[in-house]
TrEMBL record:
<dbReference type="InterPro" id="IPR036390">
    <property type="entry name" value="WH_DNA-bd_sf"/>
</dbReference>
<keyword id="KW-0804">Transcription</keyword>
<dbReference type="Pfam" id="PF01022">
    <property type="entry name" value="HTH_5"/>
</dbReference>
<feature type="region of interest" description="Disordered">
    <location>
        <begin position="290"/>
        <end position="322"/>
    </location>
</feature>
<dbReference type="InterPro" id="IPR001845">
    <property type="entry name" value="HTH_ArsR_DNA-bd_dom"/>
</dbReference>
<dbReference type="GO" id="GO:0003677">
    <property type="term" value="F:DNA binding"/>
</dbReference>
<keyword id="KW-0805">Transcription regulation</keyword>
<dbReference type="InterPro" id="IPR011991">
    <property type="entry name" value="ArsR-like_HTH"/>
</dbReference>
<feature type="domain" description="HTH arsR-type">
    <location>
        <begin position="247"/>
        <end position="318"/>
    </location>
</feature>
<feature type="compositionally biased region" description="Polar residues">
    <location>
        <begin position="296"/>
        <end position="305"/>
    </location>
</feature>
<dbReference type="GO" id="GO:0003700">
    <property type="term" value="F:DNA-binding transcription factor activity"/>
</dbReference>
<keyword id="KW-0238">DNA-binding</keyword>
<protein>
    <submittedName>
        <fullName>ArsR family transcriptional regulator</fullName>
    </submittedName>
</protein>
<dbReference type="InterPro" id="IPR051011">
    <property type="entry name" value="Metal_resp_trans_reg"/>
</dbReference>
<dbReference type="InterPro" id="IPR036388">
    <property type="entry name" value="WH-like_DNA-bd_sf"/>
</dbReference>
Amino acid sequence: MRALRIHFTAEDFARIRFAPRPVPLQELHAALATAVTPRGGPLSAPWRGRVLRSLPTAAEPLADLVPAGRPPSFLDVLGDTLADGFERIRATSPGLVRAELERVHGAVPAPRWVRGLYAGEEAAWRTLRRAQQAAYETVLAPVWSVVQDLHREEFTGYALAAAEHGVAATLTGLAPGSRLHGGVWEWPGAAPAREVRLDGRGLVLLPTFHHPAGPLLQDAPGRPAVLTYPAGPGLPPTAERPAADAEALAAVLGRTRLEALRLLAEPHTTTSLARALRVSNATASSHAAALRSAGMATTTRTGRSVTHRRTALGTLVAGGPR
């Protein structure tokens, strides 16, 4: 049976992290791959049609990089913004660029601008950047705020599941049908079949909301591996959310605990938190403890008094200013 098998060491388990924000270029590439592949059934067909009809001429060079559906690995970078992603791609070593273009194109003659990439010509790199920018503006920009909201919800769910059930159960929960045994995380049915040994590099988990099949694994030497896995409702997001963000977060955290998280943007003692929530001190203390165990709040003691305040993770989950 085909399977992706990821081998962990104890050090790798300690270095698992969840990408704190969605990655524009990774999400763009997932969206484009879904647009040109008949995935997701008939419900995705209208979205695919709209995307393919609306892509501008400036984006067409991107198709030259995936003649057989196998994009070069140097396009897969982690960057919080488009500009950061562009810079990371441009910083790829010339040797890796040439090796990946040879892998992708083989003996098939490449278009002139791709040969320019191979030769390191700046004009070719500008062509790539313009193509990615044009595709982003058409495909992702209209729904980027929705992608950010969905990512925040996924982040929250992962943090709470890890705090309550542990990392092993949370990993397999991300991928129904996968299993973790003997330090190996196995995804049956994944294509192509691969054996990946992390050897202490760690793993970054990155949800995608435009790629219903998965997983996608980026395994660059000397860097943490990046696992992009399908998340969300299974259909590409639209500009209209089916439910308010507050409702989605409340479903995960509970309404009172979500309100506690929002209140802890400012320091609160247990008594002041209980008063603001209109609950008992014991209940307020329980909510603060749950948020603290999930890494979303801290508690400091001064004499008899304790003060609670949310962490950077808590601020990210709550959607407040960073």
